[in-house]
Amino acid sequence: MSKQKIIVKKQKKGQDYGAAKTFISAAVILFLMLMLTGLLTYFIPGGEFDPETMIFTKSQTRGIPIVTWIGAPILVLFSDSGALVIAIIIFLLIIGGAIHVLKETGLIEGVILAIVKRFANNENLLLAMLIFVFMTLGAFVGVFEEVVPLVPLILILARRMGWDDVTGLGVSVLATGLGFAAAVTNPFTIGVAQQLAGLVIFSGALLRFFVFISVYGVLFFFLKGHIKRNRTERIDAKIQDTSHVPASAYKFFVSLMLLMVVVVGLTPFISFLRDITLPIIGLIFLIAGIGVGKIVNGSGKWVTKQFFQGAKEMSPAIILILLATGIKHVLIEGQILGTILYGISNQLQNKSPLFALFMTFLAVMGLNFFIGSGSAKAFILMPILMPLMDLLGIGRQLGILAFQFGDGFSNILYPTNAVLLIALGLSRISYVKWLKFILPLQVVLFVLAMFWLAIAYRFGYGL
């Protein structure tokens, strides 16, 4: 066996070990959280809370059987949200398979090599551009889950630039998540919340634009400092030869990626697209993987083999998603969500306006641990928060700003967020390592959010 093959084999073993370690640590954390949620159903009385009349009706039972806790990751597939979970799983399998085919053809390496050569002597510009593009997708279009297919590409680009995998996630998933939090016209948080609150859609955008700029600056300097402290060897010289990839394969791939951008861009403006965006993206990547594979290799058998290998490598992320959604299932089955919301509404009444505003931000951030969807939280919380904002004289626009911050900034922190779990699996970074990286930034973002809420309150934002 040649020396090069031995090195590749050792690298593969190291990657497999890292992936297994990442999966086990995340699975253990989620399982413990699942058990803790089950225990809470015995200590927190269940019930239903009607926010319109502020009436809380207690349940006659308390606690759910332990078999429901343990079986929740499977039982969730047969619940009301089961169809969505299954759709996400199928989407991930398709994306995993398609990306693997594209990588094995050498096309992705070729695209990355071109970018590396273009920005070899100006990595700060590349860093600024990547952060801006991904943050813009989150802030203006409401993209978050849809960036998953791009994560492997950005990770390869980061390695070629001499950046570590954490930086790769930083300029992609992290940037998108923070853009989602510092939203200007995000239709899934701002749009839905303002519609439920009876406000003009996307009104008050000027202040949110300045919030976006401030978060962008914080993230850029945070990642720039991280790169300086954790630079790795730039390995563009070790990229495999991609001269065998025909130009037609690149044209085919780029055309489909442009189509995907158009679909994502139209989603906020065409209502029926919102429910089928992920399936469409999955279909586009499936066509890209099969098409490029056939153009480069020509063998349907080879394409099929590579596709199923990629889908197989995505399976650990699916287990983590089932564990995370299982936590929400136990929360709903135990009927303790209504109790929690009732407690929050009681705590917010008769408080000073600014304190109530800060408490709203914290309450939404806490609830985001269990319910990741911004739109779902808007439907649950707006009927509670908006009357309270009116009562306290804060104004509904400012209440939505607090909701926006609470919903978004913790998306890239909690291990119950499916997008974060998938990204960590793709990068082979453990959740513990990610937590160490993200906590200092979270502290800065927490202070920044409080600052903007106080400024907005001081100048009567939305009144």
Automatic annotation (TrEMBL):
<dbReference type="Pfam" id="PF03606">
    <property type="entry name" value="DcuC"/>
</dbReference>
<feature type="transmembrane region" description="Helical">
    <location>
        <begin position="317"/>
        <end position="342"/>
    </location>
</feature>
<feature type="transmembrane region" description="Helical">
    <location>
        <begin position="196"/>
        <end position="223"/>
    </location>
</feature>
<feature type="transmembrane region" description="Helical">
    <location>
        <begin position="169"/>
        <end position="190"/>
    </location>
</feature>
<keyword id="KW-0472">Membrane</keyword>
<feature type="transmembrane region" description="Helical">
    <location>
        <begin position="276"/>
        <end position="296"/>
    </location>
</feature>
<keyword id="KW-0812">Transmembrane</keyword>
<feature type="transmembrane region" description="Helical">
    <location>
        <begin position="384"/>
        <end position="406"/>
    </location>
</feature>
<feature type="transmembrane region" description="Helical">
    <location>
        <begin position="21"/>
        <end position="44"/>
    </location>
</feature>
<dbReference type="InterPro" id="IPR018385">
    <property type="entry name" value="C4_dicarb_anaerob_car-like"/>
</dbReference>
<protein>
    <submittedName>
        <fullName>AbgT family transporter</fullName>
    </submittedName>
</protein>
<feature type="transmembrane region" description="Helical">
    <location>
        <begin position="354"/>
        <end position="372"/>
    </location>
</feature>
<feature type="transmembrane region" description="Helical">
    <location>
        <begin position="126"/>
        <end position="157"/>
    </location>
</feature>
<dbReference type="InterPro" id="IPR051679">
    <property type="entry name" value="DASS-Related_Transporters"/>
</dbReference>
<feature type="transmembrane region" description="Helical">
    <location>
        <begin position="252"/>
        <end position="270"/>
    </location>
</feature>
<feature type="transmembrane region" description="Helical">
    <location>
        <begin position="438"/>
        <end position="459"/>
    </location>
</feature>
<keyword id="KW-1133">Transmembrane helix</keyword>
<feature type="transmembrane region" description="Helical">
    <location>
        <begin position="412"/>
        <end position="431"/>
    </location>
</feature>
<keyword id="KW-1003">Cell membrane</keyword>
<feature type="transmembrane region" description="Helical">
    <location>
        <begin position="64"/>
        <end position="94"/>
    </location>
</feature>
